[in-house]
Amino acid sequence: RKRQVPRLASVDMESELPSAREAYETTRAMAEEIMQSARMDRAIDVRRASQVVKSCVDSVMRNQEALQILVQMRTKDDYTAQHGMNVCILSAIFGRHLGLLSGEIEKLALSGLVHDVGKMRIPEEILKKPDTLTEDETRVIREPPTHGSRILMSVKGLDPVAVDVAHSHHEH
Q1: Are 109 and 71 in contact (CB under 8 A)?
Q2: Is 80 exceeded by the pLDDT of residue 16?
Q3: Euclidean distance between CA atoms 90 and 68, whole angstroms
Q4: Where would I find the H helices in the chain?
Q5: What are the tens digits of pLDDT across the range 77-117?
Q6: What is the pLDDT of residue 76?
Q7: Could you please report the per-residue DSSP string of 125-136?
């Protein structure tokens, strides 16, 4: 695997902010669409998700601070979709910091976007329960990685890395 030296910002933050905001919004919408598809047992549009992730990575490569500031100012939307979007963006920033190639960063960011898709199979009353969970509920709340990997294995064209990330992201 070839590493590249992380590039310094190729544009200043002010110039990148409009593109970053557009990438942020399309990534947020894509994250919501992915969660809705999983909730409704519909196919995830991996081609479109990959395009959205690419625009996010491109923005990070031009100037990571622009998207980073938008993540820090996040609003209170659907938590899981918002979380997936933030993990996508922060993964792209981290991949750039590590000196990964753009294609590798895109795989990493897409994996971050879909990593929690299995949560959509958990009943909301358990997912959002404010009180202590029962033993049975605790068992159910630990199932999202298994659900997520099953959902993602059925997605045509999705890189197997995303399936691995969804399956193992809660390992201790």
Answers
A1: no
A2: yes
A3: 7
A4: 13-39, 46-62, 64-72, 79-98, 102-114, 124-127, 135-141, 144-153, 160-168
A5: 467 878 888 899 999 999 999 999 999 999 999 999 889 88
A6: 40
A7: HHHT--SPPPHH
